[in-house]
Design brief:
single chain; 175 residues; Peptide Deformylase; 7 strands; binds nickel (II) ion
């Protein structure tokens, strides 16, 4: 297992639409294990494969207690409802936080690492994590979902200042 480097905003890997996982090969299992290590090293709640430069439809999500982690392969949101605005961050945009509108709850179908189909229901923060990671699989970042004025302000700040060195102190909600 290994800690992988997380791609930052500006890296083209974050903008590609990821391809489906055709089979859970030993390579895919290794990527999953490394992604879990990386997520915990970065104190994130979730991590999508494109964030570590792997263009596959694959995400890992911390469990509610922050102890275990679950890998979801080829996830699809099948149902969603409600609407909630809350602050969001991303490991690929260290130190950047902004309120994002998301569905309040989601239902998701995916495969687990054993190839079994699983259905996951989530609400609140967990539902937010799933939607955020799903976006990564489509090359979408949370700042794309902000109003243009806020988004441009953030982009200008990143261009001018880069990412804050002390961002780690504020990573609690980074996905
Ligand atoms: Ni993210």
């Amino acid at each position: 297992m290994a800690i992988l480097s997380v791609r930052k905003y500006g890296d083209p890997a974050l903008r590609r639409r990821a391809a489906p996982v055709e089979a859970v090969t030993p390579d895919v299992r290794k990527i999953i294990a490394d992604m879990v290590d990386t997520m915990y090293d970065e104190v994130g709640l979730g991590l999508a494969a494109p964030q570590v430069g792997v263009s596959l439809r694959l995400m890992v999500v911390a469990d509610e207690e922050g102890r275990g982690a679950r890998a979801l392969i080829n996830p699809v949101i099948t149902e969603q409802g409600g609407e909630i605005v809350a602050e969001e961050g991303c490991l690929s945009l260290p130190g950047v936080f902004a309120p994002v509108k998301r569905a309040e709850w989601v239902r998701l179908d995916a495969q687990d690492p054993d190839g079994k189909t699983v259905t996951v229901n989530a609400r609140g923060l967990r539902a937010r994590v799933f939607q955020h990671e799903m976006d990564h699989l489509d090359g979408v970042l949370f700042i794309d979902r902000l109003d243009p004025v806020t988004r441009d302000r953030i982009k200008r700040r990143i261009k001018k200042e880069g990412f804050a060195e002390d961002a780690a102190a504020h990573r609690a909600f980074a996905l």
